[in-house]
Amino acid sequence: MTTETGPVVIALAEGGTSGRTLEWGLAEARLRFADVVLVHVGPDPGKVIALGWYPLEADVRRDVAAQRHLTAVTQLARSRAPSLTVRSRLLRGAPVPVLQHQAVGARMLVVGVTAAGPAP
User: Lesser CB count within 10 Å: N end or C end of the chain?
Assistant: First the structure.
């Protein structure tokens, strides 16, 4: 991460703690006059075949729910911080390496905690 340029990356989880994580991240972005990138990291698809992955019904439902959540949180962020540029990304993979990659060039990475432990 760098302190001079780049966005504030806010990692979101589906659930109750995303609101606090979002507010903290937006406050930090305002202080730094930084753009915001909201990130939700979902698990890799359930079935991998030789030519790629085959989406299972559960994967599709999970992706649809995650995209709805991310869209709603993006709209909320834009309404709470209209002076900031807010983008969002729905990504797949193991959360730690995906978030580490997202943090490259960012001013800050904001990650929340769920009842099950640390989570984006």
Answer: N
pLDDT value, residue 98:
94
Mean pLDDT of 22-32: 96
Report CA-CA distances (Å) from 19 to 38, 80, 99.
12, 11, 19
Q: Packing angle between helix 18-32 and helix 57-80, nearest 10 degrees? A: 50
Cα 31 to Cα 10, 74, 90, 112: the distances in Å are 15, 19, 25, 19
The full set of domains in the chain, from first to last, is: 8-118 (3.40.50.620)
